[in-house]
Amino acid sequence: MVRHAGRGDIAAVAEWNAAMAWETEQKRLDMQVLTRGVTAILGEPRRGFYLIAEREGRAVGCLMVTYEWSDWRNGDFWWIQSVYVIPEARRGGVFRALYEDVARRAKEAGAVGLRLYVETENQRAQSTYRQLGMEQCHYFMYEQML
C-alpha cells in the first residue's frame, strides 16, 4: 500500500534520509536540520509531499516529490527525491509501487514528466529506473551551496 506521509512519519522519514545519505554518499546529516526539513515539507504542500510504502501494515520505504515549473512545456516536472527502502524489503517491488503511484498522481495532476537524479556510481538504481521506462538525460547537474 502507498499513502501520503503524515506527522507520525517524520522520525522514520528523517532516519531513512540519514541512512540513504550514508549508504549512497557516506555523508552524515545533521538530524535536527533533517527533521526540520522533513517537517517543513509536510507543513507546506506547495513544496511537495512524501509517500510511504507499507507492507502488512509496516512502513518499509518512502520517497519525496518536489515540483519544478517548466516554461518550455507550460507544466510541472515532478522530481522524485529522498528514495529509501529498508534493507529487508529491497528488491521486493517497494520502489516500483512507489514509482507507479507517483506516475499515476502526476498524470492526474497534469504534470509534464517525472525526473530524478542518481549517484553516478549507483548502477543498481540506474538499472531499476531504466526498467521502469525512465531515460538518462543529456544534462549535467551543477550546484553551489550557499
Automatic annotation (TrEMBL):
<dbReference type="InterPro" id="IPR016181">
    <property type="entry name" value="Acyl_CoA_acyltransferase"/>
</dbReference>
<dbReference type="Pfam" id="PF00583">
    <property type="entry name" value="Acetyltransf_1"/>
</dbReference>
<dbReference type="InterPro" id="IPR050832">
    <property type="entry name" value="Bact_Acetyltransf"/>
</dbReference>
<protein>
    <submittedName>
        <fullName>GNAT family N-acetyltransferase</fullName>
    </submittedName>
</protein>
<dbReference type="InterPro" id="IPR000182">
    <property type="entry name" value="GNAT_dom"/>
</dbReference>
<feature type="domain" description="N-acetyltransferase">
    <location>
        <begin position="1"/>
        <end position="146"/>
    </location>
</feature>
<keyword id="KW-0808">Transferase</keyword>
<keyword id="KW-0012">Acyltransferase</keyword>
